[in-house]
Amino acid sequence: MHKKLYEISGLQFGYGKIEVLSISDLDLEEGKVHVLLGPNGSGKTTLMKLLNRLLTRQSGRIKLRGVDLLESEEVRRSTVYVHQNPLLLSGTVYDNVAYGLKLRKLDREEIRRRVLRTLKIVGLEGFERKRSNALSGGEAQRVAIARALVLEPSVLLLDEPTASVDRKNVRRIEELLQQIRSAYGCTIIVSTHDLPFAYRISDRLVHLDKGRVQPDSENILKGQVVEPGVFRVGQNAQQEDSQVPGRGSGILEIACPQLEGAFTTAVLDYDRIILSQEPLESSACNSFEGRALEIRQVPGFDGIEDILLQAEDSAGLYFTARLTSRSRREMSIEAGSLVYMTFKASSVRLY
Amino acid sequence: MQSAFAHAIELIVTGDREVIAIALTSLRFALSSVGIAALISIPLGVLLHFNRFRMKRAVVAVLNALMALPTVVVGLLVFSLISRSGPLGQLNMLFSPAGVILGQVILASPILISLVFSGLSRMDSRFHETLITLGAKQRDVLIASLVEGRFVIISAILAGFGRVIGEVGVSMMLGGNIRWYTRTMTTSIALETSKGEFELGLALGMILMIIALAVNGIIHSLVKSDA
Q1: How many CA atoms lie within 13 A of B37 on its CB side?
Q2: What does the pLDDT average to over A249-278?
Q3: How far apart, in whole angstroms, are the C-alpha atoms of residue A253 and residue B62?
Q4: Is the dihedral of CA B129, B134, B136, B141 positive or negative?
Q5: How far is C-alpha A1 from the geometric centre of its chain's CA atoms?
Q6: CB-CB contact of A78 with A154 (8 Å)
Q7: Cβ-defined contact of A54 to B127 (cutoff 8 Å)
């Protein structure tokens, strides 16, 4: 069970009379990649700056590991924010990446070792002596990430890291985020309005619209396409020698659209899953047995409920289905009930 | 006039003793006053940038107005302070290099404070946030701002230098234009022109022009580098 990293409650923030953020309740867990998704002006940057205490909340509460952010010493030690268009200091790439370490008064050898290692991770080996004003947009972005990473933060906040980079470098940044996660194990919070990028990298999506958190509405499933029209979901799905799915395997194969590409994420809207008490005879290719674990009222939507389900065929795989309270009661679905989940292959979106 | 011009060039080329002495006196006064003004004004400009207080806008407006302070007004104010009957009369600063330098410090300071403040204010807002997020404390932010804003500060110093090297009012009223002592290029030009003797004035004028062009050239290249 992941620990809570940030706990946000009753948060209000505005510039003058203009309200920019109003979040009643939001928790972000340790060790995950959280993506704040929303259009320009939805409050993503403001929220990230609040989480890094570059802005001060006007009302409500933000806790970092249980301590109020305003009183937290840890926020400066363990969280770093990287701007959308990062500003590099004058000097070389080395000067930039080493800056934070020099502030912390590390010895020269240790600084050098860390800087070179970090430049290698971000794919800028050999760039140490290059002037910071002679870099391309993608390179500058990676230097800024290296400058943050070299401090070994436990929380990395990246504001629109793909906003000013070309398509090729978007993939590079995705790979980089995976590497950061493996090498550092830190929590990563990313803001973006790039939907495919968001789906591919996120463990958890937070939809923001006009400063408010929208209820989750999508199942995001990690895995890979094993043959055209078949997506293998599960923790072990990406291992080459992963076993044929079976009960307890932790792997599930779902029918999906037949598309070309190296897709790693399948997205299925909550309301595309049909629940029944018996297996459903239909044209839908996907039908699985599941057990209802939890029933939650959808905030802001009276009479609509989300049901958290665990797929019986594969332990550890969870889906959420959405239906009206009335339908749920008519079907006598409660926590612990056995149900059948059915959805069409065409309902699955691949990224 | 043509012969006066030729004679002026001859004074420069032959290194006329008096021309050199006057030019060096001007440079000595200007460099001293700008040096002292910089020591006082740069920290004030930085403090003004980093601190918030109620009357901040009013202070900035007053500083901007003081940038255009007429030199004779400064001369008059300082004269009233350091004359025999003034509160600082016993310091014997009137008609001495110290008096001129004091007046020029007062002249240059609003320019330096104002330009340092406005230059730092124009710095990218991401700069401050970047430093804070990397763990910089207030002192580190100050040092980094001075380093990143070095071109701004150098330009401010040069602008202050340009103001004082070409002023007449303060030098005349507080220095007294005493030969071999407090006679500067500008007071000398004023004197020689009023006597109808143009050669020395022209020679000094040419030197002053060269200095002014050099200062502007340096500021221009600094602005280009900063961009």
Answers
A1: 32
A2: 90
A3: 74
A4: negative
A5: 17
A6: yes
A7: no
Hey, are the CB atoms on B144 and A89 less than 8 Å from each other? yes
pTM value surpassing 0.95 = no
Cα–Cα separations (whole angstroms), residue A215 to A1, A10, A45, A142, B112: 22, 16, 19, 33, 55
Residues of B within 8 A of A52 (CB-CB) are 133
Q: What residues in B contact A89, CB-CB < 8 Å? A: 130, 144, 148
d(CA A80, CA A96): 14
Chain A hits for B127, CB-CB cut-off 8 Å, are 87
Angle at A284 between CA A345 and CA A317, to 5 degrees: 65
Question: Mind telling me how many Å the CA of B145 is from chain A's nearest CA?
Answer: 10
pLDDT of res. B124: 85
CB contact under 8 A, B129 and A77: no
* pLDDT at residue B223 greater than cutoff 60: yes
CA-wise closest residue to A156 among A70, A67, A51: A51
**Mean pLDDT, chain A, integer:** 90
Q: For residue A150, what are its two tokens?
A: 């070299």
Is 1.10.3720.10 the CATH number for B2-51+108-167+175-226? yes
Whether A86 and B126 lie within 8 Å, measured CB to CB:
yes
Pure H helices in B83-197: 97-121, 125-133, 138-148, 150-165, 169-170, 185-195
φ/ψ bin of B149: left (φ > 0), alpha (ψ from -120 to 50), beta (otherwise): alpha
Residues of B in contact with A79 (CB under 8 A): 133
What is the rounded distance in angstroms from the CA atom of residue B104 to the CA atom of residue A316? 79
A103–B135 C-beta distance less than 8 A:
yes
CA distance to partner chain A, nearest, from residue B148 (Å): 7
Dist CA B108 CA A77 (whole Å): 43
CA–CA min distance B207, chain A (Å): 36
Write down the residue that tokens 């996907």 correspond to.
A286
For residue A305, give the 3-state DSSP assignment: strand
Contact call for B129 and A103, based on CB within 8 A: no
From B124, B133, B147, residue closest to A81, measured CB to CB: B133
* B148 lies within 8 A of chain A by CB: yes
Give the gap in angstroms from C-alpha B64 to the nearest C-alpha of chain A.
28
Q: What is the pLDDT of residues B15-71, one digit of tens each?
A: 888 888 999 999 999 999 999 999 999 999 988 988 888 999 999 999 999 998 899
- Burial pattern A94-128, b for ≥16 Cβ within 10 A else e, equals bbbbbbbbebeebeeeebeebbeebbebbebeebb
Domain locations in chain B?
A: 2-51+108-167+175-226
Which residues of chain A have a CB within 8 Å of the CB of B140?
A: 103
